Amino acid sequence: MPQRQNSLPFKDGSGARVDIFIDGAARGNPGESGIGVFITEGGKTLREIKKYLGTATNNQAEYTALITALESVKDLKNRQIRIFTDSMLLANQINGLWKVKHPGIAELHKKAKNLLKEYASVSISHVRREYNREADRLANEAIDEYL
To answer: What's residue 3's pLDDT?
Structure first.
């Protein structure tokens, strides 16, 4: 099996965590959009999710990917969960570093923050796109399969 992605530069060696890679894609802004969620544990793939969204902005798609990821791992709430995104906007807004100004994003932000409260240990980090290839692939496949 070829090496998939997840050669993150900051691996800590512990295997008792779930890593979730999320991505939202929009072709146009707004435009045809989709999400990808790639979930691993100890380097093994747990789940892959792709979903076509219809017309949305890239930021709406990014937030929808986060919400979908959080809703899909409710059975893993007691695990250490690390979420990775190549959206600096989403990571910084969720981490409270940037304000949410757009009303269309505010509702999604609120929903994501409420979901995050349900988890014992969760972090969200920005990564370069090259470390988020599988989620990007899934988001684009969702769009391609619909069109």
So the answer is: 38
Tell me if the pTM is above 0.85.
yes
**Unique residue bearing structure tokens 């969620």:** 37
Beta bridge partners of 12: none
**Do strands 80-85 and 121-126 pair parallel, antiparallel, or not at all (unpaired)?**
parallel
Q: What is the pLDDT of residue 4?
A: 46
DSSP 14: -
Strand duo 80-85 + 17-28: pairing: parallel
Q: Does the pLDDT at position 88 exceed 60?
A: yes
Please give the Cα distance from 46 to 59 (Å, whole number). Answer: 25
DSSP-based helix, strand, coil % in the chain, nearest 5: 40, 35, 30
- At 7 the pLDDT is 45
**How long, in residues, is the chain?**
147
Please say if the pLDDT value at position 38 is more than 70.
Answer: yes
Distance CA 125, CA 132 (A): 11
CB 61 within 8 Å of CB 34? yes
| Measured distance CA(20)–CA(8) in Å, rounded | 12
